[in-house]
Automatic annotation (TrEMBL):
A family per Pfam: Ras
Keyword Protein transport in annotation: yes
Domain of life of the organism encoding this protein: Eukaryota
SUPFAM superfamilies with a match to the protein in the record: P-loop containing nucleoside triphosphate hydrolases
A single cellular component GO annotation: plasma membrane
Family statement: Belongs to the small GTPase superfamily. Rab family.
Single GO term (MF): GTP binding
Keyword NADP: no
Species: Cicer arietinum (Chickpea)
Keywords linked to the UniProt accession: Cell membrane, GTP-binding, Lipoprotein, Membrane, Methylation, Nucleotide-binding, Prenylation, Protein transport, Transport
Role this protein plays: Protein transport. Probably involved in vesicular traffic.
Record protein name field: Ras-related protein Rab7
Amino acid sequence: MDISHRKRTLLKVIVLGDSGVGKTSLMNQYVYKKFSQQYKATIGADFVTKEILVDDKLVTLQIWDTAGQERFHSLGAAFYRGADCCVLVYDVNIHKTFDTLNNWHDDFLKQTDTENPDAFPFVLLGNKVDVDGGNSRRVTEKKAREWCASRGNIPYFETSAKEGYNVDDAFLCVAKVASQNERDLDIYFRGISETPSEPEQQSGCAC
Ligand code: GDP
Ligand code: MG
């Protein structure tokens, strides 16, 4: 398919969640198809990029990782600025990482410059579902989905960065909701009041 003539879009994606939940691993699995057991609190680059087709349009995801600063819960407004989507990650085997989602979610909205906080697209990933064949799980899928519903129908995926389970599907959804956000902002800044001819759902995605 010839897609070279189409407009390219850069979408900024922020990945947040407690230290150790697998944020860096999910990004490495998605972008490089690699997984490491070794725990590394820092990475060299601020972000990685990946091109992906969304509804026949090529977009570039610019996915921002933290360099371990999440341990201090102090990422700063510069890190969040201009984000098109925020991916929240918790570890299904450690309940505390689920409890802190409220903080990450609220902190993001507080720090970011988004025009419409209620409509800002988040995606939640419940990671490490492979551990112990699911026997050490502490947060049920139902509970996670209830939290998503209470926060404006955030799309939810259960993932394993180790096995690559659901990782591509999750980031395709991220790309879709981020694209939608970018289109909405575009319309906002051009001052066009009418809605797009084929409105898409803001928080749900057809994934
Ligand atoms: P971060 O601090 O959120 O960036 O977490 P990391 O990506 O550094 O991962 C922390 C640890 O969890 C590392 O030892 C990873 O190998 C491990 N890990 C990450 N994702 C998974 C997963 O899906 N399954 C398993 N079993 N281990 C994982
Ligand atoms: Mg990390």
